[in-house]
Specification:
The chain has six helices and six strands, in the order H-E-H-E-E-H-E-H-E-H-E-H. With 201 residues, the chain is α/β, with parallel strands linked by helices. It has a domain at 16-28 and 71-191. It has a six-stranded mixed β-sheet with strand order 2-1-3-4-6-5, with helices on both faces. Strand 3, helix 3 and strand 4 (103-115) form a beta-alpha-beta unit. The protein is globular. 35% of the residues are buried. This is Spermidine synthase. It comes from Calycomorphotria hydatis.
Length: 201
């Protein structure tokens, strides 16, 4: 299978910066015919753009019941926009578990957040902390700054606007749906416990 270059979809504006889209697609081996599930803020635009690349992208609304949704996705993309802090809400883990139930073994969960100047390190920590509650064979966080200029490069990293992608590769051995939901319940209990505090990365 061959990855379709982004230039093949120049007529469709990327929903996120081109550098970030290239990372999402190439770093996670999304190719022509790959099945991708998209959820969150801006899921419609992301889905349409991926479809122009001949990636089989399906959109799912927040809170959607997955009972009739097919499985076997190569990846799921969760877009949290300007609100990475929502990922530390206890209810967020159940929604993530529902996405994980749809991804095939060794597939990817990709969580994308917008970094606001002044809170970037906290937001990146929220992204990383969220997926750390679920088993995986590999996790990573990648960041790109938006609208870099000589002046912006002089600012502390925490004061730069940008985007972050936190990815986890699922275990090669299948994880039962009940297990994903059990991990979500444990995570929700953890962040809901007295004394839990969000920390800067």
């Amino acid at each position: 299978m061959t990855t379709l270059p982004l230039t093949a979809a120049d007529h469709a504006a990327p929903p996120l910066p081109r550098k970030l889209m290239r990372h999402l697609i190439f770093a996670h081996a999304l190719t022509v015919g790959s099945k991708v599930l998209v959820s969150g803020n801006g899921a419609g635009r992301m889905t349409e753009f991926l479809q122009t690349l001949r990636i089989e992208a399906d959109r799912v609304e927040a809170g959607y019941s997955f009972l009739e949704q097919s499985e076997g996705y190569d990846a799921a993309i969760l877009l949290v926009g300007d609100h990475p802090q929502d990922l530390v809400a206890p209810t967020a883990y159940a929604r993530t578990a529902d996405l994980l139930c749809r991804i095939k073994p060794a597939g990817y969960l990709l969580v994308v957040g917008h970094l606001i100047p002044g809170t970037a390190s906290v937001a990146m920590n929220d992204l990383t902390h969220h997926i750390a509650h679920f088993p995986s064979q590999h996790r990573s966080t990648w960041r790109c700054d938006a609208k870099l200029s000589p002046l912006s490069l002089l600012r502390p990293v925490d004061d730069r606007e940008g985007f972050a992608v936190t990815s986890m590769r699922l275990p090669e051995k299948p994880v039962a749906n009940e297990e994903w939901r059990k991990f979500a319940q444990l995570a929700a209990a953890d962040v809901g416990a007295p004394g839990f505090h969000r920390k800067a990365a």
